[in-house]
Specification:
- This protein is an alpha+beta fold.
- The protein contains 5 helices and 5 strands, in the order ααβαββαββα.
- The strands form 2 sheets. Strands 2-4-5 form a 3-stranded mixed β-sheet, with helices on one face.
- Strand 4 and strand 5 form a beta hairpin.
- Helix 1 runs antiparallel to helix 2 and helix 3 runs parallel beside helix 4.
- The model has no long low-confidence stretch (mean pLDDT 81).
């Protein structure tokens, strides 16, 4: 992700197409991505720990933090993401784990949209609350999951991607 941003800035600078704010915006994105990747390593290390402490966190902020990490990749692939997020929904849980789940699902949606060569790539992310639950819905127009594999997608090491692109642990851990 951050190498894409760095390469884009470098190319745009070479072609004299770089605007003033692009360097700062790109560097902020690269720093955010690097911090997130570092946190991801910690999350994997802590995955099986039983002494984690729940914290009260803002769902909209958590969702938008993940969007800021994938934004450049979505934009460079022509993917439009629409948010319908209720304001002020808080949850007592594990924000880093939720971030990983959202990142896995949004990356899978991106991959499906690219693989199926969809003309108008679209993702809708909704977050709302009813009387008993908080609901997060992620919908895309990437074609869905075939019935023949739907029961396997949460199995460890199951992937529909080439070995160089997927490990099959993202949805399993999610």
């Amino acid at each position: 992700m951050h190498t894409t941003r760095a390469s884009s800035v470098q190319l745009r600078e070479t072609l004299n197409l770089l605007e003033q704010n692009e360097i700062q915006d790109s560097m902020e994105g690269i720093i955010t991505s690097a911090k997130f990747l570092s946190q991801t390593i910690d999350d994997f290390r802590d995955f099986l720990r039983t002494d984690k402490v729940k914290v009260l966190f803002d769902l909209k902020k958590t969702i938008m933090d993940i969007y800021n990490i994938i934004k450049a990749n979505y934009e460079s692939n022509g993917i439009i993401i629409d948010f319908q997020l209720d304001e002020n929904i808080t949850y007592n849980g594990y924000p880093r784990e939720l971030s990983q789940v959202l990142l896995n699902i949004l990356n899978n949606a991106k991959d499906a949209l690219i693989t199926h060569d969809i003309d108008h790539k679209y993702v809708l992310l909704k977050c709302y609350k009813n009387d008993v639950s908080i609901i997060i819905e992620i919908l895309d127009n990437g074609g869905g999951i075939p019935d023949t594999i739907i029961n396997k997608i949460f199995d460890p090491y199951f992937t529909t991607k080439h070995q160089s692109q997927g490990t099959g642990i993202g949805l399993y851990m999610s």
